[in-house]
Amino acid sequence: MSALSRFLPPDFDPTRPVVLIAGQGRYPALVTESIRAAGVPLRLVALDEETSPELQASFPENERALIKVGQVGAMLKAIKRFDAGYAYMAGQVSPRKLFSGLHPDLKAITMLATLKRRNAETIFGAIAAEIEKLGVRLLDARAFIDDHLATPGVMGRKKFPIETDYLDHGLHIARECARLDIGQGCVVRKGTVLAVEAYEGTDEMIRRAGTLKTDQALYVKTVKAAQDYRFDVPCFGLKTLESLDAANIRAAALEAGRVILIDKPSVLARADQLGISLLGAD
């Protein structure tokens, strides 16, 4: 285990550049800050219309590359140009772009033709395989941000209001949905399933749940039993907190050690302000 992060490989070489393949949101910026603070060389592959302009501007021109979603060949060329030892995927890509908004180059077309099923897991898994063919190791997407993971027990000041039986029911439903590749979250209330997350994403699922009776409701976020932590790691951030508040859902259970709180101090402070209890569930 590396002293820099428990999620790094034991033989991690901090002198070799890490290439960050960055999607949307605060997550890639958080990773950037943490890797730079660790003193590890960092390069950027930005996705057009996905990666924030501010993040792109924080890299010198010769240490960044801009590609369209689906340009796998261009991404691989950039990684080789940077002489990277490692790659790191962080941030969401608009789900619609994975299916209808791709700009595939020849490498991507060839890769996609080999996939019997096309979903986020198979597409990113195939990309991961292409990256590792270069001799570049794709890192666990929790690396360097250990302090931002959900931890066991109540994580804020507000007491967790959900009874153990109802918590266990919510965890069971969320894990079954993840196992069936439906989604990684659900909203339950006193043993009843109000909504499960699917293609529409977390915030829309919470909005649907909010049209129902939500006193004593619980939002649960979990992972697949065989989760590939190199990509698609579930995250929980300020946007989801605001969605819970709008839906009058006052409790959330996040699988400890597996769900990332995007900028954890800010999330916990805002949860306390809103009166939402956050639990790290084992």
SSE blueprint:
Layout lengths: L17 E5 L3 H12 L4 E6 L5 H5 L6 E4 L4 H10 L4 E5 L4 H5 L6 H7 L7 H14 L3 E2 L14 E2 L9 H16 L5 E5 L2 E5 L5 H8 L7 E5 L13 E2 L1 H9 L4 E5 L4 E2 L2 H11 L2 E5 L1
Helix pairs in contact: 8-9
The parts where pLDDT drops under 50 for at least 5 residues are none
Q: Count of DSSP helices?
A: 10
Mean pLDDT: 91
Task: Assign an overall shape.
Answer: globular
How much helix, percentage-wise, in residues?
25-40%
For the record, the count of structural domains works out to 2
Approximate strand percentage: 15-25%
Instruction: Report the C-alpha radius of gyration, rounded.
Output: 19 Å
CATH class of the largest domain: Alpha Beta
Strands, total number = 13
If you consult CATH, what is the topology of the largest domain? Cytidine Deaminase, domain 2
The succession of helices and strands, N to C, reads EHEHEHEHHHEEHEEHEEHEEHE
What gap, in angstroms, lies between the N and C termini? Answer: 22 Å
Please characterize this protein's 3D structure:
The protein is of the alpha/beta class. The protein folds into two domains: 18-138, Rossmann fold; 149-281, Cytidine Deaminase, domain 2 (3-Layer(aba) Sandwich), CATH 3.40.140.80. The protein has ten helices and 13 strands. It has helices spanning 26-37, 53-57, 72-81, 95-99, 106-112, 120-133, 164-179, 202-209, 238-246, 264-274; strands at 18-22, 42-47, 64-67, 86-90, 137-138, 153-154, 185-189, 192-196, 217-221, 235-236, 251-255, 260-261, 277-281. Helix 8 (202-209) runs parallel beside helix 9.
